[in-house]
Specification:
201 residues, alpha+beta, Nucleoside Triphosphate Pyrophosphohydrolase, 8-stranded mixed beta sheet, 3-stranded antiparallel beta sheet, 11 strands, globular
């Protein structure tokens, strides 16, 4: 069983935001908007439970402009008032699920990802206080839920998917948990976390 503290050794240090290109840029280069990618950040939050760590995810409201109704990590674009991706990830998490700052302990970064909607996303992995109460913001979040980390780390649960986008075939993975479909960039980040734990970063 993986402990949340074990993740530090396989992540980029919290104080050093990865400065390279998005991990999946070669795959998406001809599908991205012409405008420069806009910086965004998400929080891959883990809470220790008696049966092992669980990963916090949200289902976005159907009326949102970007990724409506999809399963995602708390997060959003880096605003002008943010000091950087770390500040944005914390701010968005506080706004979306109501966790107080003291309940969030940054552990480190996964590699950044590009999205087809034109974002350069920085995933911050953090330990969350298991006693903190989630208070989802109904304007943004339809539901907040947790998935066992062990389930997400099992390669058998990463189901291969092929789809066509703008005339080109894309190969993705998705997870199914509790009636939820976890796919796209969120699933790719979880696979990155799994591979780092298996291969030491």
């Amino acid at each position: 069983m993986v402990a949340v503290g074990d993740l530090r050794a396989v992540l980029h240090a919290p104080a050093r935001v990865p400065d390279g290109p998005p991990r999946n840029l070669p795959e998406l280069a001809d599908l991205l908007p012409a405008a420069p990618l806009r910086p965004a950040a998400v929080l891959v939050g883990l809470r220790e439970h008696r049966c092992g760590p669980r990963v916090l995810l949200t289902r976005r409201q159907d009326a949102l402009r970007h990724h409506a109704g999809q399963i995602s990590f708390p997060g959003g674009r880096v605003d002008a008032g943010d000091s950087g991706p770390l500040a944005a990830a914390l701010r968005e998490t506080i706004e979306e699920v109501g966790l107080p700052p003291a309940a969030i302990e940054p552990l480190g970064w996964l590699d950044p990802y590009a999205t087809l909607t034109g974002f350069h996303v920085f995933p911050l992995v953090a330990a969350l206080d298991p006693s903190a109460v989630l208070e989802p913001n109904p304007d943004e979040v339809a539901e907040a839920f947790e998935v066992p980390l062990d389930f997400l780390l099992d390669p058998a649960n990463a189901l291969p998917v092929t789809l066509e986008w703008r005339g080109r075939e894309r190969r993705l993975v998705e997870f199914h948990w509790g009636g939820h479909r976890i796919w796209g960039t969120t699933a790719a980040m979880l696979v990155d976390l799994r591979d780092r734990l298996r291969h030491g970063g």
